[in-house]
Amino acid sequence: MRNSIYGAEKTMNLSDVIICSDFDGTLATSEAKCVSPTRTPLGCICEENILAVKKFTEKGGRFAVASGRSPLAMDFLYDIMPIDDIFAGTNGAAMYSRKQKEFVFRHAMKVSPLEFVEKAQKAYGELPEYHVTDQQAVVHKYYPDHGESAIEFISRFSSLLKIIFVEHDEQKMARLKKVLEENFSEACEVVLSCPFLVEAFDKGAGKSEIIDYFRKENPGKTIVALGDYENDVAMLTKADVALCPENAVPDVKKICRKTFRHAGNGFIADAVEYLEKL
After folding, report:
1. CA 127 → CA 116, 121, 177, 234, distances in Å?
2. Residue 84 and residue 69: Cα distance in Å, rounded?
3. Tens-place pLDDT, residues 71-80
4. In a designed cystine with 93, which of 76, 161, 178, 263 is the match (CB 3.0 to 4.6 A)?
């Protein structure tokens, strides 16, 4: 924060800051919504955001990514910008050290995969396409009508980090989310990560895990969270400072200290500039 010492202003030292940023919709976006894009296998990142991360880390800050995606699928990011060694994937249920090539933290679902799918199917009806993330953060995909039932597919797994349902129908996804909340509220967190993705993971887990991890390992540091959607709320709420892009949903904007430009048009640059002036 900005303080007055003997009449002089003291601004925040970026070396005392750790930024935990969501990926989709916060750091990256679609090519159509991205200015001066750098294309990646999972979206585009605007050049201004890349330069901002480099500037921030050159001044001693740490920039970590917390994504709903598997950490194993995000290795390409290290070739684009200097992100932190610790990557929080599968909505924080798996924290992975790229340097050590091992997990530093995993939070598996306590409910069995078979029980989850059987109960969900009974309450909702035929389930849409769904993806599961196993204990090694490997993603497996189930497609209806591909010669295997949802029960046969899920029976392969004894435990999971996350289950994500996919269907490009917002009304159906809203109904599925409600059904899963009604049936698994005591065992699972159920969130939308975008209008057509419903994610379920263990109760008490989530992207806020990365805030707890960095706070424990780096006492005294200021932890800043950047996010845009419902699955970012726990992380944003727990951070010391929460910031979001213009494209964030209203519920996220309500809990963030400031809203800046769109993710595809320099949001990260705005956030870093703001932190320099605190």
Report:
1. 12, 6, 12, 27
2. 16
3. 999 999 999 9
4. 161
